[in-house]
Specification:
With 332 residues, the protein is mostly beta strands. It has five helices and 19 strands. The mean pLDDT is 92.
Length: 332
């Protein structure tokens, strides 16, 4: 479809996709072609009386397939990884939808692996050579099976999309996906998205592993988590992705959780040890005493700091009624 009216400079335009494309349904995907004239748009999903908001990803026109990625394994181990949380399967349904993020991509050769918090791989599935116009949503219930669900029950864990060339195909390193989380009770849902990187290797490949501060390799972490307020509790899922071959690199993180007040002063600290390929669910309200959190105040925050490895994270809020949000964290 084409917009009837142009979007003016510094202006905006709301499009009701349900009205414009009434036969479109999840997990169909849309591409927005606007040259370089708009910033990254937001989209809203309205379901009953509930509304959630997320951002669209940016599709690149300047990439081409990189045949070198298929040969990275001996030196880079598992290579490019796209980690994302798998929330407690007893309470939440987790779905991943790979999204072609470059105009050159005609297919996505993928596999998915699921890990328990202690780094044990509890499920794996080769997704094969997925054509661009026939990419299916991946329901983690199906990937986990009974044994995997039992392994993550009560805690959750995380999964990683990665390239798999057993059926051929090409890759460009710009692997992205959208993640949907739905409460099994109450109907609440959240969406997030992110892209792949090479994690925690000393060797670098075309600027990977990236670092938020300084040149590669990116072997350090600074992530920020705001504290909850108004009856909502904040939480984060911290993931220790490991691209390095087995036996190489740090095995366990040394992750500091630094609680700051609104002036930036540190008032408390705790330490986490996250195994490679493992994760941790961080809930400040269950880590720090109530009196310490009260000193931090509603404008306080948690700094996740690690100088031994790069930790990737997702953050959210939850309330007692089962409402929640979830999105990826940014670092500096």
């Amino acid at each position: 479809m084409k917009l009837r009216e142009p979007v003016p400079a510094y202006g905006m335009c709301a499009v009701d996709l349900g009205q414009a494309l009434p036969h479109l349904a999840w997990p169909a995907q849309l591409e927005l072609h606007a040259g370089r004239h708009v910033i990254r748009p937001r989209y809203e999903v309205v379901q009953g009386k509930r509304r959630r908001i997320a951002h669209a990803n940016v599709e690149r026109t300047d990439l081409s397939p990189d045949p070198g990625i298929a040969g990275l394994s001996p030196l880079m181990g598992r290579g490019f990884l796209l980690p994302f949380p798998v929330l407690d399967p007893e309470r939440y349904r987790t779905t991943a939808l790979p999204t072609p993020m470059a105009t050159c991509q005609t297919d996505l050769p993928l596999a998915i692996e699921v890990f328990a918090p202690d780094g044990r791989r509890v499920a794996c599935r080769v997704l094969g050579h997925m054509p661009r116009d026939r990419i299916a949503a991946i329901t983690l219930d199906d990937v986990l099976g009974n044994a995997g669900r039992d392994a993550l029950a009560g805690t959750g864990g995380h999964a990683e999309l990665r390239y798999d060339f057993c059926e051929g195909g090409l890759a460009d390193g710009w692997l992205h996906a959208l993640f949907r989380y739905e409460g099994r009770a109450g109907g609440h849902a959240a969406e997030s998205s992110f892209g792949s990187h090479i994690y925690n290797t000393i060797l670098t490949y075309k600027g990977e592993p990236q670092s938020y501060a300084g040149p590669p390799p990116g072997l350090s972490t600074r992530l920020f988590l705001a504290l909850g307020r108004a009856g909502r509790e904040s939480f984060a899922v911290l993931i220790h992705p490991a691209s390095a071959p087995e036996g190489a690199g740090a095995k366990v993180s040394c992750t500091s959780l630094l609680l700051h007040d609104e002036t930036g002063a540190v008032i408390a600290e705790e330490t986490l040890a996250i195994p490679a390929c493992g994760s941790a669910l961080v809930r400040p309200a269950r880590i720090f005493p109530a009196a310490i959190l009260a000193r931090a105040g509603e404008r306080g925050y948690l700094l996740v700091r690690d100088t031994t490895c790069r930790i990737f994270g997702y953050q959210g809020l939850m309330d007692e009624a089962g409402g929640f949000s979830l999105d990826h964290m940014f670092g500096f």
